[in-house]
Design a protein that fits this description.
Elements lengths: L11 H9 L7 H9 L3 E4 L3 H7 L6 E2 L5 H5 L17 E4 L5 H11 L6 E2 L3 H7 L11
Parallel strand pairs: 1-2, 1-3, 3-4
Length: 137
C-alpha cells in the first residue's frame, strides 16, 4: 500500500467541507417540507441511537453500510422507494456529519437530488418536529 501524496491527502474536516459544497443542505423545517412534497427521508443512524432517541415518522431506516445498495435505482437490492435518479433523498444521521458524506456518495451514484439534514436528528428534534419515542422495556 502506498502512502497518500500531498496532492491527495486531506483531513476528514477538509473532505467534509469539500463534499458539502456539492449539497444543498436542509434545515429541519425545510427537510419536513421536502418530505411533505415527496422527498424520501433516510435515517442512517445506528440502532443504539434510534433506540435511545426514537424515530422520525415516515423516514426509511437504512443502515449506513447498506445505503448505496438500497437506494441505487439500478441495483438488484434496491428498496421500492428507489424509483429513479431524480428522487429527492434527505439523509439523516445523528448530528449532520456522516449524512453529508452519505449524500455525496448517493450523488456519485447519480441521485443528483440527494442531500442531508443539517444538524441531523438532533436538529429535527430540537425544532419540535414529530418524533416517535423509543420503546422502553
Amino acid at each position: 500500500m502506498t502512502e497518500p501524496t500531498a496532492r491527495t491527502a486531506r483531513s476528514i474536516d477538509d473532505h467534509l467541507e469539500r463534499v458539502r459544497t456539492r449539497l444543498e443542505r436542509l434545515d429541519a423545517p425545510a427537510a419536513a417540507e421536502a418530505a411533505a412534497n415527496g422527498a424520501v427521508l433516510v435515517d442512517i443512524r445506528y440502532a443504539a441511537l434510534r433506540d435511545r432517541d426514537g424515530l422520525i415518522p415516515g423516514a426509511l431506516v437504512v443502515e449506513r453500510n447498506e445505503l448505496e445498495w438500497r437506494l441505487d435505482p439500478l441495483g438488484d437490492h434496491r428498496l421500492p422507494e428507489a424509483t429513479g435518479h431524480d428522487l429527492t433523498v434527505v439523509v439523516i444521521c445523528n448530528e449532520g456529519y456522516a449524512s453529508s458524506l452519505a449524500a455525496a456518495s448517493l450523488q456519485d451514484l447519480g441521485l443528483h437530488r440527494a442531500t442531508d439534514l443539517d444538524g441531523g436528528f438532533q436538529a429535527w428534534r430540537a425544532a419540535g418536529l414529530p418524533v416517535i419515542p423509543p420503546e422502553r422495556p
